[in-house]
């Protein structure tokens, strides 16, 4: 499998008293969806912010295509990584859906203008994400699930091979969660992308992710391509009791 991003012996702390991440190592490959599980405070968001360059002053190494992330300019990083954060977006009132999604090509603009390639990609992504009927709607009029679909489409506009999402389904109802993961699977196939996402729903993670990594107190306690996690691992990671059931060789946790 071709490696896109490699994390080696990564440690980080916001102050000298406690490590938020402690000696983390794993690779992200082309054509795989990697889910990061762990309770609040386990280091998930910090890990994503380090990989995308939003945080520095860490020990260890993060490389993209065998090049140290610290050697990337802001523009190069913006072209190479599509990152959707948890933080609330500030969107101009005059933006319609088409404007908003097209803005995903901003790092690639020449002399401040979009070109034919940008608009061709826009048409393709809007079609892939079933947003044709939304093109001229004001972004401010969208529901939470509709907006999240547009945010996902905007991320795809970069056409890059590394997509990173921080709790992308946390504000969605079940229908939009299913839609999101189906779109993610399509993006993986079309772009041969490596997709890394933090996720709070264990059952969606087990169903849709190719590989699961579980964090506990800043350390990896599980990293496997299996569609099954032991109850002991879940108890340790989330500090609560779990039960499981199996139907047609699929596991469900509650």
Automatic annotation (TrEMBL):
SMART domains: AAA (SM00382). PANTHER family: METAL TRANSPORT SYSTEM ATP-BINDING PROTEIN TM_0124-RELATED (PTHR42734:SF17). Keywords: ATP-binding, Nucleotide-binding, Transport. The keyword Metal-binding does not apply. It comes from Treponema bryantii. It comes from the Bacteria. The keyword Methyltransferase does not apply. GO terms for molecular function: ATP binding; ATP hydrolysis activity. InterPro entries: AAA+_ATPase (IPR003593), ABC_transporter-like_ATP-bd (IPR003439), Metal_Ion_Import_ABC (IPR050153), P-loop_NTPase (IPR027417). This is Iron complex transport system ATP-binding protein. Residues 5-242 form the ABC transporter domain. Belongs to the ABC transporter superfamily.
């Amino acid at each position: 499998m071709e490696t896109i991003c490699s994390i080696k012996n990564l440690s980080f702390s916001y102050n000298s008293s406690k490590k938020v991440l402690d000696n983390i190592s794993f690779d992200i490959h082309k054509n795989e969806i990697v889910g990061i599980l762990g309770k609040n405070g386990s280091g998930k968001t910090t890990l994503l912010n380090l990989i995308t360059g939003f945080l520095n002053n860490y020990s260890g190494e993060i490389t993209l295509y065998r090049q140290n992330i610290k050697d990337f300019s802001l523009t190069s990083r913006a072209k190479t990584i599509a990152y959707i954060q948890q933080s609330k977006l500030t969107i101009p009132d005059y933006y319609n859906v088409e404007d908003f999604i097209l803005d995903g090509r901003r790092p690639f603009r020449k002399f401040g203008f979009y070109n034919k390639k940008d608009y061709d990609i826009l048409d393709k992504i809007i079609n892939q994400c079933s947003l044709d009927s939304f093109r001229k709607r004001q972004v401010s009029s969208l529901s939470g699930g509709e907006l999240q679909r547009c945010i996902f489409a905007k991320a795809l506009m970069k056409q890059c091979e590394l997509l990173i999402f921080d709790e992308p389904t946390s504000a969605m109802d079940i229908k939009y969660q299913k839609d999101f993961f189906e779109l993610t699977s399509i993006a993986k196939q079309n772009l041969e992308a490596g997709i890394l996402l933090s996720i709070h729903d264990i059952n969606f993670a087990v169903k849709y992710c190719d590989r699961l990594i579980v964090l506990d107190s800043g350390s990896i306690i599980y990293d496997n391509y299996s569609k099954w996690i032991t109850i002991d691992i879940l108890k340790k990671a989330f500090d609560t009791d779990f039960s499981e059931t199996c139907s047609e060789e699929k596991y469900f946790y509650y």
